[in-house]
Amino acid sequence: MAGQEQDKAYDPRGIEEKWYGYWLAKGLFSADPAATGEAYSIVIPPPNVTGSLHMGHALNVTLQDVLIRYNLMLGRNALWLPGTDHAGIATQNVVERLLAREGKSRQDLGREKFVERVWKWKEESGGTILRQLKRLGAACDWGRERFTMDEGLSRAVREAFVRLYRKGLIYRGRYIINWCPRCRTALSDLEVSYEETKGALYYIKYPELSGRRSVTVATTRPETMLGDTAVAVNPKDERFTGRVGATLRLPLMNRPIPLIADEMVDREFGTGAVKITPAHDPNDFEVARRHELPSVRVIDESGKMTAEAGAFAGQDRFACRKAVVLKLKEEGLLAKEEPYLHNVGHCYRCKTVVEPAESIQWFVKTKPLAEPAILAVKSGETRIIPSQWERTYFDWMENIRDWCISRQIWWGHRIPAYHCAACGQTTVAVETPDRCAFCGSGNLKQEEDVLDTWFSSALWPFSTLGWPETTPDLASYYPTSALVTGFDILFFWVARMMMMGIEFTGKAPFRDVVIHALVRDVRGEKMSKTRGNVIDPLEVMDRYGTDAFRFTLVALAAQGRDIRMSDDRVEGYRNFMNKIFQAGRFVRMHVDEETPKELPGDLQVVDRWILSRLQRVTDEIRRGIEEYRFNDAGSAFYQFTWHEFCDWYVEMIKPSLSPEADPQVRRDQRAVLLHVFDTILALGHPFIPFITEEIRQSLPGERDSILRRGYPEADASMLDVDVEEDMGHLMEVVRAVRNIRSELSVPPGKRVEVRLKGQVEELAFLREHEEIIHRLARAQKVVYMDPEYIPVQDATAVVNDIEVCLPLAGLIDFDQEARRLRKEIDKADAELSVVMAKLSNEKFVASAPGDIVTAHRTRKDDLEEKLSKLSKNLELVTRYLS
RNA sequence: GGGCGGAUAGCUCAGAUGGUAGAGCAUCGCCCUUACAAGGCGAGGGCCACAGGUUCAAGUCCUGUUCCGCCUACCA
After folding, report:
1. Which chain B positions come under 7 Å from a protein C-beta?
2. Which of A107, A323, A514, A836 counts the most CB atoms within 10 A of its CB?
3. Closest Cα partner for A542 from A519, A567, A572?
4. What is the CA radius of gyration of chain A?
5. How far apart are CA A48 and CA A46, in angstroms?
6. pTM (predicted TM-score)
């Protein structure tokens, strides 16, 4: 029994896989650059090969899928290009962890073997996330799947590198960069995340060599003092007048260092004197350049103290910090130590504290690239949506700093630069050169470093389409139509794609950049493994079905807001899926192979009403998708389908579908029903692809995919304002009856007479469609009263110019009816006073637009009329009571 | 230190170009009415954070304040 009950509800299991396979088999997602139709293209933000689907991907992918399916249905030549990112550091970490389990390090294997091992891992485990995208229904063109380390994309990377190098936009040099001692590689500025950390500010005395005075400096990293080569003060600081040029003794190292003057020093901070450690601080590095100071590297690439650290050599940097402080105390040179809250940089991959360190790295000179990228957005060539992100984009672009692109890891694109052992010059070339371009020597050795993963990602919109070759794909699908992504990678990725895209193709890579929200948990917290609040999208899909999950994401995807995901929401939309499924069953019960596809020439009023509403909602949904207001599109679809089509239209037409109905009327009615429902399915398909395909193909006669149906288009000729208004009144009459029945506890099974009082012409429409009122209001019969009728023992309500009267003597408590009427009167009264207040204001009448004033006037008349009717009826009721 | 976003019904949130406050969930009544109890019908619930200002009219525009969140920054 219970089983049967369950069978009546929608069960997405089995259906989803079936249709996804069907779409693939039919090649519906395979794009052809030669095909007709306006091109529409999206490249997927490539997820990490190491990744598995999380809520962020789910939202991102769903929105793209909505766009792609919508455009496919519009008949455009739509391409959605999928792929993954090799994610250098992350992937290398994964494989290193696997090796560690075998007790091996990557160094044990050696570079070549290690890289082979990573490839093997990628082949075996790298496809997880792509399989999960399929589960979501993603209409990707899998034949065009790309990986950032593909042969083609690697070629593009080398080409881009060489071109930038030749233009002088890539250079190599010794600078301060962010170094992760755990990953043992340089990081770009963006890959460092600053976290507020409780530390201490140490005040250290540096004695002058001659004399008894000393200079006190403040630092949060005392261990770096071992590498100090100067102390700096502001030249305008009177406290140090006459002392600049003095020689100080560097404590613990007993090295003489100068006291210098530099503008960079803030007189207000600390003691006004700064220790200068050129090898381990970006500011100090600059100061050292200006003053030609030597640089002493005291921390090595694994975070241990170097031989330059004297007695502290070999210690870990944090152990050394303690040791240095202790030693300074012993020597009486620690003036003060105070707690200090400051921002400390951490590696965004492994959370290790980053160490600024001087080393030789490769950089992209970004300013010349940023300028046109700024211009592209300013000119509107690329739109950022929502536009408030433009400002963030400009801020970053305008203050952009050079980009450190070399990484000291093995997994990635090896930099195409070859150092000559003979002359020391570096040859940069796309293909491995035989000889040094400078001296002709064959003794070349390729650069060991690989490129930042984001370097290859920056080329993604065109490298995936075949660049640097001029391919048909590139010609047809570049620039792409939209990029859909989260704001967290606006700088990492979007900004860099803009720069590279313009540099190499002359065109910005996207028409629109659509920035969507972050998905958070119910409490609004960011989902993270450490917090343990991660909701697994796959589990949600298992429980509620993919369509319900997708619709939830769409419905919650309001622009500029974060999304709070919870089971309740998904459950609500799961119910909506069931509603659609049930509606499908209803339609299937009433239509058959004979049901005409075309709308009948002769439409009933209810049909004209639903068709008019359908045009409006079609328009709303299309506008929503086109303006990336997905939630608006989703809720328009929801409201219409459930609350207009199911709640009203289906209920209203039941009589004309019954076997007793006139065959012609029945046939016509079926045709309209089918047409409207079919349109609903098509409208919903981009959001809920599986259930719409399933139901549509279960309808009589349907054998082709819903994707080929074409997206519904609003037909203005079907709009009918009058019918919408008349039907609105009729529905209000029904509601009024229902309300009275419910409020006054009229037994549900009890049929009552409905008396409609008003002028003949006002009653005409209702009289014509009496059948609807009769059924939906559970009327025993509907009768019409002229305006002279006095409803002595009736419960009453006012709908526009009509009074709805229910003779209920003996059935109800008239005390209650009196209370009900008073409540109505109060409501109308309150509203009237608001309207009156406006109308009695001369300035309002004088300066407000005419139509607004007119609207208020009619509103006033209506309310007064309503009030007079209500009061009269209340009087009747109370008189009857006494 | 700069910048951005948020504060609207018990909860989660919508409310383009200023013109009579909406949805979903939750709550309360009543109903297994033959598509649907994952349902139907009805109802209650809001000085739209605070203080000023602009305007005939302000969740909506301007200024300031208070909380909350995020991004960014070379104060050692």
Report:
1. 3-6, 12-15, 19-20, 23-26, 29-31, 33, 35-44, 55-57, 70-76
2. A514
3. A567
4. 37
5. 7
6. 0.93
